[in-house]
Fold:
Amino acid sequence: MTPSTLHPLLASRFSPRAFSDAAVGIEDQRALMEAARWASSCFNEQPWSFILGDRHQHPEDFARILDLLAPANQVWAAAAPLLVVTAAWRNFSRTGAENMHAWHDLGLAVGQLTVEASARGLVLHQMAGLDRLRAARTLGLPEGVEVATAIAIGHPGDPEQLPEALRSREKAPRVRKALSEIAFAGLFGQAL
Amino acid sequence: MTPSTLHPLLASRFSPRAFSDAAVGIEDQRALMEAARWASSCFNEQPWSFILGDRHQHPEDFARILDLLAPANQVWAAAAPLLVVTAAWRNFSRTGAENMHAWHDLGLAVGQLTVEASARGLVLHQMAGLDRLRAARTLGLPEGVEVATAIAIGHPGDPEQLPEALRSREKAPRVRKALSEIAFAGLFGQAL
Structure:
């Protein structure tokens, strides 16, 4: 259980595998992208790109992204109304130097996107399991842009629609390390 | 201007350099860490550590972190009530294999922390400018844990307290790439 101190938009967040068939409208899609867009980033580089596949409006886009996912993810992600591939720009646009914060800042933007999704009654599930190199080629990303993750986004669905093995995982409680394992006062290992 | 579609917790966010002297209480500190704690991560690895320096309660912790910052950041961060160093665990704890998503997931956790901060009336400013290698040594981080950023956190302050050069930046409008430059339908370059 998340603690009662957490803002409801954060406390209610989870990563589902069951989605309803309801579409994610273009207004919602744009709002999610706006949330990512306004994140902070190192030198305001904004080192992120997002490729969206809308299953209802653009089934060929959706199928192209679905095909890039690991088979274990395809099983359930095929029913999501929206798939998004996220990518990080490896180098600073002004200098060409490596931006070591690119993936961090992409994650930060996705964190903002996640909250906007929650505020709109949407749920999302992030996936590391996709063919990143094939995705970069297939989706036409420029050189130096690295695919990071895929995200399935939609409205909450009925876990009963899932295969048995996934159904039980859907109901499993979320687990995390103790706070004392991740946050420290002054020096690593010192209790907050 | 952020668009009106954005949730207020996201729309109001900015990265200030002016902080009031008010302390960030331990309850707020713990709540920020809880927000990060409950973020999602690749294989639920939770590859993040946070070292906090509370200027009011633990001035020696605060000074130790302040000393790690780039001089240009020290100018204004010295007045923040709370400094946090963030770090990413480079390898999966179970297999030892490299976790290429570590920095992404750290960023994601910081994105959640940011929203909890906004909900509590706190503001924060992330910094890439710190001596990362010295920070890892000085703060006692285990081998394989990489310092990523520092974050100044506090209550909004009066920009007039800042040096003139920073004061004007504090009032500058936030700028971002156009949505059409970061979000695409189906293939890179295709308008959403």
Chain A touches chain B through 78 residues (CB under 8 Å). The first strand of chain A starts at residue 48 and ends at 54.
